[in-house]
């Protein structure tokens, strides 16, 4: 997977959550991903997800059943 070079994240977590889901197929894998990075600033949420899915496309084809993505542009927003 090309997540780090493509997204240049400050924080990147990719967790497998399959054990919490009841599935009729043993091969279905559920992932949860959290990304914090300035790479997403100025982009729409659709563009954020496009970047992530493009970076993941090779590594998760045929493996992932579900992917939940949490994206943040700034880990400590100043108000």
From TrEMBL:
Belongs to the BolA/IbaG family. The lineage of its organism: Eukaryota, Metazoa, Chordata, Craniata, Vertebrata. GO terms for cellular component: mitochondrion. This is Uncharacterized protein. Pfam families: BolA. Signal peptide: none annotated. It comes from Balaenoptera physalus. It comes from the Eukaryota.
